Amino acid sequence: MVASLFSLSERVALVTGANTGIGQAIAVALAEAGADVIAVGRTEPRETEAAVLGLGRRFLAIHADLANTDCIPGTVATALAQFGRIDILVNNAGIIRRTDAVDFTEADWDAVVDVNLKSAFFLTQAVGRHMIQAGSGKVINIASLLSFQGGIRVASYTASKSGLAGLTRLLANEWAGKGVNVNAIAPGYFATNNTSALQADENRSREILGRIPAGRWGQPSDLAGAAVFLAAPASDYVHGAIIPVDGGWLAR
pLDDT 10s digit of each residue in the chain, 252 long? Predict the structure, then answer.
């Protein structure tokens, strides 16, 4: 009985930004739990594809640049044409720009907010229509510690992730009664491409590690359990939650 609560057999998951890092780890974890995977992004997710197919699951890659919402209708239509359903949506695609607030450009603001927040909302809207009609679905937004904190030198990233947390709660309020769960995961400091500059900065990396009770950077695989939980029947009565996976950062 408990095992069935975490089974994703016969489910279809659409994951954005699944070619590397956090998105790849989540896509593979969902496949390990039984889901077929649709990967949406700008680059070919060859490693992710090999891993998912190696688990005996179906896989579809859809090329789409989420810097622009124009790709969303075609992306959803292609996914539904190939698989007939989307049971799980993971809004993981994201970018970051680092500059002092007094020097932050409008271009850097728009680039980050368009990918991290605007496209995430409109993709969720498009997939959500299908989920509401089906009477079930799981949406997992990848938020951030900066959904709770201010951070430094990442104005548009903080704004986008704070906004994504707000949208998670709003959509949960609107869709919980329609059978659709909307929740989020807030990763802490993870060893990914987005944090490569911080990892390379010896002083900053030391400061970060000094605050993490677990004493290490997170690895993408550390998110597997939270992702499967929020995608599976085990979380059917969980709505509007933002789960930190941060090595204890927020507890300090």
Answer: 788 999 999 999 999 999 999 999 999 999 999 999 999 999 999 999 999 999 999 999 999 999 999 999 999 999 999 999 999 999 999 999 999 999 999 999 999 999 999 999 999 999 999 999 999 999 999 999 999 999 999 999 999 999 999 999 999 999 999 999 999 999 999 988 778 888 888 888 899 999 999 999 999 999 999 999 999 999 999 999 999 999 999 999
Both tokens of 86, joined, read 């989307």
Residue 169 near residue 227, CB atoms below 8 Å: no
Whether 157 sits among the annotated catalytic residues: the reply is yes
Buried b (16+ CB within 10 A) or exposed e, 60-69: bbbebebbee
- CA dist 24 and 44 (Å) reads 12
Which one of 60, 62, 143, 157 is the catalytic residue? 157
Q: Which of 78, 87, 82, 62 is nearest to 12 (CA)?
A: 87
Q: How far apart are CA 38 and CA 58, in angstroms?
A: 8
pTM: 0.96
How is residue 121 annotated by DSSP? H
d(CA 98, CA 39): 27
DSSP string, 63-104: E--TTSGGGHHHHHHHHHHHHS---EEEE---------GGG-
| CA–CA separation, 112 and 168 (whole Å) | 18
Report domain extents, the chain: 2-192+221-243
Quickly name the fold that domain 2-192+221-243 has: Rossmann fold (3.40.50)
